[in-house]
Amino acid sequence: MPSLEEALFQALEEERKLSEERALLPGLLQHDLANVLCQVSLSVSVFSAVTDDRERARCLRDIQGGVKRMSELLSGMRFLFLTRSGAADYGPGDLSTFIGDLVREPGVWPSGAPIALEMPPAMHCSFSPTLIRHALVNLIGNAVAYAHGTWVRVRLSPVREEVWQLSVANGGPGIPADHMPYLFELGHPVKYTSKIGSPGLGLYIARMCVRFHGSVLRVRTRDSLTAFSFNVRTARRAIMPGTVEAGNFYAA
Fold this sequence. Notes:
- This protein is 46% helix and 17% strand.
- By secondary structure, the protein is of the alpha+beta class.
């Protein structure tokens, strides 16, 4: 039988997890949805102002892509609300194809450095599209914004046996050292955040989505390089969301 102290600790830990999950959903509404809505509004303004047919066609693609993205965001939020961890859509799939389609999707990314992909033609594993999509939209969006026109790279590479690493890296000045202790904290006033939404909200959302997916979001930074990374497993030995196996996660 667990002691009273152990039972109290478990209850407090469960309450902490519930508080984090409750904070995630309004954060997604405020931050991720606002970012896409901003991109759509910008495309609508450009579409109404230009007369060049090619430019209007590009804006129309961005508008349609942004509307599709908002629909995916709302569906994903419903999954998270109903399941508390996105497990409803957790299943086998081709992660390489999913990431490639997301990166090439119009109306999602801010203007800036092009996004380069380095990944195998296919990598089958069990994953939650809801959680991976939310995490990558925030990480890649930040990478484009803070690359300062240099470069952005999304890489999926093997680490050992069935463990693969997914990393999002960019050039630019890097993250100031005094911001590192608070980088993932909710609402802490740091400068390395998305331009829209509460300070630190995008990285907080990314960290929580990666945690619910059963991994740990890591960061490595210096001048001309910032890399965020987390691990996924192939279908041979996938771990369920909400669990973390200590010692299996590496920095980029």
